[in-house]
Amino acid sequence: MLYAILCYNDEKAVAAWSKPYHDQVMQQLTVVQDKLARQGRLGPVARLLPTTAATTLRKGRENMVIDGPFAETKEQLLGFFIVDFASLDAALAFAKELADANPGTGSYEVRPVAELQEHRLAQERKPAA
Asked: Which of 1, 2, 69, 97 has a CA that sits 20 to 30 A from residue 82's CA?
């Protein structure tokens, strides 16, 4: 089963990290990601640009395009992982490793992915353990 692990945090706090601290956090996350990549269970990983770079298509009677996400939250979606695990418990264990490697507050939403089209990861992944 594929899972999306959505990474939320306060983007202002993350943007305030010094370059050495940012590099250290990225190295810690790379260790966690590399383990999963070696197992053939890691799909796309993306870090989103700040919400100030976002554009939203708001649905209604007439669709409207507006600058920004206009989120009413303290945390923003900063990035995501697509992973392949046999169970939700295994995906949650990986999310916990990510959380342990990433300092500060925030949250990781783990959500099953329904594949609408089979892509490269689905073709290359190993049988789930």
From this structure: 69
Sign of CA dihedral 121, 84, 127, 118: negative
User: How is the chain split into domains, by residue range?
Assistant: 2-124
Q: What is the pLDDT of residues 14-40, one digit of tens each?
A: 999 999 999 999 999 999 999 999 999
Report which of 5, 8, 7, 13 is spatially closest to residue 76, judged by C-alpha positions: 8
Cα distance between residue 111 and residue 1, in whole Å: 10
| Global pTM exceeds 0.85 | no
Q: The tokens 């007439």 sit on which residue?
A: 62
Helix (H, G, I), strand (E, B) or coil at 28: helix
CATH no. for 2-124: 3.30.70.1060
* Other C-beta atoms lying within 10 Å of the C-beta of residue 128: 12
Q: Could you give the C-alpha distances from 122 to 32, 74, 100, in angstroms and in order?
A: 21, 34, 28
Per-residue model confidence as pLDDT tens digits over 79-121: 999 999 999 999 999 999 998 898 877 888 999 987 666 655 5
